[in-house]
């Protein structure tokens, strides 16, 4: 009788364990950044041939260039910069064109790429970039490369790169060179599109902390007296 009771209890324990689901183990970040890839229908540059330059640029990775050249608005979701800095990626995709990525790697990046995010941080430094394939190597239309950090004194090696693009600046007459350079050291709130730029792994721990970027930046607000004010105004 005792043996039957013990057997029953053991069987019940096995059934209970089978019904339990162990917590999933993830190798990625638990960032609250919303998921969702960028659908081509959502990329709406104000001028598909912006001053003669097509959306895919004039060389390099046309798929990446097309994402950098978007100008559409999003339903911005607030996230933390620390969570963005913790995002991971498959190491095998760096320095490789997107059309060579495996389906699994594409899916991994698509979990977060294209998220319409709003995030606060500090502008550590800014640099007007040289010519690039994204902008068809036009000397008049160049990105502003911006280092975005957790504090005004953070190093570039710990920062996230965020980018002001010519196509967005074309819609923001207040975004002059002087207005952008005046942001250095300021506490700001940024809205823009989360993008993975696989092309610069050699810069990691040197002039950037991650290959994830906010690119393009769609809105910039600077803190003034405890309030955030758009630099458009």
Features:
233 residues; alpha+beta; OB fold (Dihydrolipoamide Acetyltransferase, E2P); seven-stranded mixed beta sheet; 6 helices; 23% strand; globular; disordered N terminus
What this model shows, in words?
The structure is a single chain. The chain is α+β, with helices and mostly antiparallel strands and 233 residues long. The protein is built from six helices and seven strands, in the order H-H-E-H-H-E-E-E-H-H-E-E-E. It has a single domain (40-230), classed as OB fold (Dihydrolipoamide Acetyltransferase, E2P), CATH 2.40.50.140. The protein has helices spanning 2-19, 62-68, 81-85, 103-110, 166-169, 177-181, and strands at residues 77-78, 116-128, 144-149, 160-164, 187-196, 212-224, 227-230. Strands 1, 2, 3, 4, 5, 6 and 7 form a seven-stranded mixed sheet that branches. Residues 1-31 have low confidence and may be disordered.
How can the largest sheet be summarized? 7 strands, mixed
Helix percentage range? 10-25%
CATH architecture: Beta Barrel
Number of helices: 6
Number-wise, the strands total 7
Q: What is the CATH first-level class name?
A: Mainly Beta
Class from secondary-structure proportions: alpha+beta
Strand content: 15-25%
Whole-number mean pLDDT: 85
**Any idea how many domains?**
1
Q: Rg, please? A: 22 Å
CATH 4th-level superfamily: Nucleic acid-binding proteins
Poorly predicted tracts of residues: 1-31
* End-to-end gap: 84 Å
Shape estimate: globular
What is the CATH T-level topology? OB fold (Dihydrolipoamide Acetyltransferase, E2P)
Write the H/E string, N to C: HHEHHEEEHHEEE
């Amino acid at each position: 009788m005792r043996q039957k009771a013990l057997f029953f209890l053991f069987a019940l324990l096995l059934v209970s364990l089978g019904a339990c689901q162990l917590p999933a183990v993830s190798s990625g970040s638990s960032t609250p950044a919303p998921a969702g890839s960028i659908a081509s229908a959502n990329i709406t540059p104000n001028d598909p041939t912006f001053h003669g330059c097509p959306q895919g640029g004039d060389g390099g990775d046309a798929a990446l260039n097309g994402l950098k050249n978007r100008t559409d608005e999003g339903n911005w979701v607030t996230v933390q910069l620390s969570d963005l800095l913790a995002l991971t990626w498959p190491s095998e995709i760096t320095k490789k064109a997107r059309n060579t990525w495996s389906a699994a790697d594409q899916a991994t990046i698509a979990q977060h790429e294209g998220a319409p995010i709003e995030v606060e941080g500090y502008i550590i430094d800014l640099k007007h970039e040289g010519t690039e394939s994204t902008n068809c190597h036009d000397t008049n239309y160049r990105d502003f490369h911006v280092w975005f950090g957790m504090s005004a004194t953070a190093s570039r090696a710990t920062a996230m790169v965020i980018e002001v693009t010519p196509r967005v600046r074309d819609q923001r007459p207040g975004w002059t060179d002087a207005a952008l350079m005046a942001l250095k050291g300021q506490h700001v709130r940024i809205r823009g599109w989360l993008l993975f730029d696989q092309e610069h792994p050699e810069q990691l721990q040197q002039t950037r902390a991650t290959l994830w970027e906010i690119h393009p930046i769609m809105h910039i607000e600077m803190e003034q007296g405890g309030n955030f004010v758009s630099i458009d105004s």
